[in-house]
Write a structure and sequence with these properties.
- This protein has a five-stranded parallel sheet with strand order 7-6-5-8-11. Strands 2-1-3-4 form a four-stranded parallel sheet, with helices on both faces. A two-stranded antiparallel ribbon has the order 9-10.
- The longest helix has 20 residues.
- The chain is of the alpha/beta class.
- It contains twelve helices and eleven strands.
- It has two domains: 164 residues, Rossmann fold; 164 residues, Aspartate/ornithine carbamoyltransferase (Rossmann fold), CATH 3.40.50.
- Bound molecules: phosphoric acid mono(formamide)ester.
Amino acid sequence: MFQFNTIQKGLKGRNIISTEDLSIPEIKEVLSLAKDMKRNRFSSKFTDVLKHKTFLMFFYNPSVRTRQSFEAAMTELGGHAQFLEPKSMRLKTEKSAGETIEDSAKVMSRYAAGIGIRILEDKITKYGEGDWLIREYAKFADVPVFSMAHDKFHPFQGLADIMGLQEYFDEVKGKKLLMTWAHGALARSWCSIQENLLISSRLGMSINLAHPEGYELDKEVIEKTKKYCEENGQEFKITNEVEKGYNNVNVVYSRNWMSPNAYKNGILQKELEIKKSMKYTKWICDSRKMKYTDNAVFIHPMPVDRGNEVSDEVASGKNSLIYEIAENRLHVQKALLALTMC
Ligand code: CP
């Protein structure tokens, strides 16, 4: 059986709602264990770590990577993941009577060693409501609660992004990241973008953030990103120009996200957001713009909106890390499931 070190042992029982829940030394230990788990994927030192334990995966929204990688992670650690949807439960909502979060969280804690929740933009009435719901579960649950992506944050995606960059560059400190908005037909959440800004700036990357006017991100996330860049002696620049941010960067992350006006009277204006976004056809990451970079790698949390967010040539090019990072979801999740639930 694997022996955890002192920092790793401190993670037992902890909730992971954002990477902000982890200190820098803890992030380093999680990534170190994830890399060990990647190198020694089916080693007997890991295959019984969560033997007989269950992780409940509660999905308000669909998923490919998150569901499959959490389920595979529990299998590879000797445990089991159970898939749940709100329609298969009897939860209290504004419109119907049913079980409260307190009762659900307390009962789920009697069965499982951990609970994961995904709640994204179309299942809430305003930005911040998904974050509130996950924190309510965490307040009442007696086992760790994980965000499997919610309206504000996507911690396991942020960790997988950084793991991919560390594998490529060895050290991410001092590397320059362009986080650029892109037009798209899917009206994306803010969670992956905001998580990446926080973890990248905390780990010492300099950041160019590019988006058209009207696509500003959460002010608190922007203030924190600025502070972390300053503390690490790195630059944080925001531009509304489509090409300027590409100059000399080492990493390009191109992704659509919705405007802050996406909700009207408690309803997500998805079609309107898509229509508005699709007018900005210049906002795509393509080979011509990548030529301005320092031979940058391309990253994206997937699913990729090819032809809108990024050209096929870049997404499938030799500098694309998208599949490596998607695989890393499995390894960072295995590491944190083991550390928090063991
Ligand atoms: N990146 C990510 O969370 O993918 P899924 O939405 O497919 O889970």
